[in-house]
Write a structure and sequence with these properties.
The protein is of the alpha+beta class. It has seven helices and seven strands; from the N terminus they run βββααββββααααα.
Length: 353
C-alpha cells in the first residue's frame, strides 16, 4: 500500500455516517488496556469489553484507555456510543491516511497525530496513526498496533515520577505527545546523519550515490508530510480555549509545539541539503564526463594528422613519390612519432593533460 496516499476505493458510495477502515490491519485481534491512577494508587488491567473500562461518574481517579487495533470497526463504534464521539471523528480515527488535525467538541477534545519509526530494514520511515480523545477525567487513545514510544510515560506513572500522577489527564495527554514529538526529532536526526554521510562520497560520483540521494529525499518528503500537520494540530491544541486543558498545562503544550517546529525546520534544512547534494552530484558527473570528453578529444586530435598521412600513402595510385623508397615505411613511422610527441608536448604546456 502506498505511503503518501492510500486507496480510498472502499469509501466510495458509502454513507458518511458509516465507518470504513482504511489501511492495513497489523493485528489479528484488537485489545484494550486500562490504566487508572491518582496521586496514591495505580491500576493496570486488560479488558475484553470496552464498557468495563468506563470510569463511573463519581470517580475521582483518572483513566487512560488505550485501544490497539483500528481495524475493529465494531469496537470503534462502541467507543463512539460510550463516549459520545461523533461518527465523523470515528472515521478520522480508522482512516489511517487521515491528515493530523485537532477538534474541540466542547465536552471533549480530539487530536490526531502520527507516530514515526523505521521499518525492520531501517531504510524507510513508516507512520502509525494515533488518535487521542480527552475528556474531563479520562483519556482515550487509539493505536494501529502494539508497540509504541509510551514506555517512559508508563514507567513514570508506575513509579510516580514527575507531575504525571498528580496532574490531570490533560497533562497525561501532553506527556504522551511529548514522547511522540521527541521521537520525531530522533527519527529526523537519524535520517539526517545519513544525509550528511553522503557528502563524504559525493564528489567521487560513485554508483549508488544518486539512488541514496533520491531515497533520502523521498523519506524527508514523507517526514515533512507527517510532521508539519502534526505540529499544526499541536499548536491548535495549545491555543484551545477549553476547560479540559488547565492553565498549568498550557506552557508545556506551547513548549511542545516549539519542539515540533524544531523537527519541521530540521526537515527543511535536510531537504535543502539534499537538493544541494543532488546539484553537486550532477556537477561531479558532468566534470567526469568533461574529463572523459577532453581525453577522447586529445586522442582524436593526435590521430587526425596520423590518419592524414596514412590516408595519403594508402591511395592506390601507380605513380606516387616516395613509394619506392627502401626506408619509406620507417620514415613515415618516424614522422608520425615526431608529430605525436610534438602534440603531446603542446597539450601539456597548455595544461590540457
Amino acid at each position: 500500500m502506498a505511503r503518501f496516499i492510500r486507496r480510498h476505493g472502499a469509501r466510495r458510495g458509502r454513507s458518511l455516517a458509516g465507518l470504513t477502515f482504511i489501511g492495513e490491519a497489523p493485528l489479528e485481534t484488537a485489545s484494550i488496556q486500562v490504566v487508572e491512577y491518582d496521586g496514591e494508587r495505580l491500576t493496570e488491567r486488560s479488558v475484553a469489553d470496552l464498557a468495563d473500562a468506563m470510569p463511573p461518574p463519581e470517580a475521582t481517579y483518572r483513566t487512560w484507555i488505550n485501544i490497539y487495533g483500528l481495524h475493529d470497526v465494531e469496537l470503534i463504534r462502541q467507543a463512539g456510543r460510550l463516549f459520545q464521539i461523533h461518527p465523523l471523528i470515528l472515521q478520522d480515527v480508522i482512516d489511517t491516511d487521515q491528515r493530523p488535525n485537532f477538534m474541540d467538541m466542547g465536552d471533549w477534545l480530539f487530536l490526531l497525530v502520527k507516530m514515526l519509526r523505521f521499518n525492520k530494514a531501517g531504510d524507510a520511515v513508516i507512520s502509525e496513526q494515533l488518535g487521542l480523545v480527552l475528556g474531563p477525567n479520562f483519556l482515550l487513545t487509539f493505536q494501529e498496533r502494539k508497540g509504541d514510544v509510551f514506555d517512559p510515560v508508563r514507567e513514570r506513572l508506575r513509579k510516580s515520577q514527575g507531575r504525571v500522577r498528580g496532574a490531570g489527564v490533560d497533562y497525561l495527554m501532553y506527556a504522551l505527545l511529548d514522547t511522540v514529538v521527541d521521537n520525531y526529532i530522533l527519527v529526523v536526526e537519524r535520517l539526517g546523519e545519513r544525509v550528511e554521510e553522503v557528502d563524504e562520497i559525493l564528489e567521487e560520483a560513485e554508483d549508488g550515490v544518486l539512488e541514496q540521494i533520491r531515497n533520502y529525499k523521498r523519506e524527508m518528503n514523507y517526514l515533512r508530510k507527517t510532521i508539519r500537520p502534526s505540529r499544526e494540530a499541536i499548536l491548535q491544541l495549545a491555543k484551545a480555549d477549553s476547560d479540559l486543558v488547565h492553565d498549568t498545562t498550557l506552557p508545556f503544550l506551547r513548549d511542545l509545539e516549539g519542539l515540533a517546529t524544531r523537527a519541521s525546520e530540521a526537515i527543511d534544512t535536510y531537504r535543502d541539503m539534499l537538493t544541494d547534494q543532488l546539484g553537486t552530484y550532477r556537477a561531479a558527473v558532468g566534470m567526469k564526463l568533461t574529463e572523459i570528453m577532453k581525453l577522447l578529444t586529445i586522442y582524436t586530435a593526435i590521430f587526425i594528422p596520423l590518419t592524414f598521412l596514412v590516408g595519403i600513402y594508402g591511395m592506390n595510385f601507380d605513380f606516387m613519390p616516395e613509394l619506392r623508397f627502401r626506408q619509406g615505411y620507417f620514415i613515415v613511422l618516424g614522422v608520425m612519432a615526431v608529430i605525436t610527441a610534438a602534440m603531446l608536448r603542446f597539450f601539456r604546456r597548455k595544461g590540457w593533460l
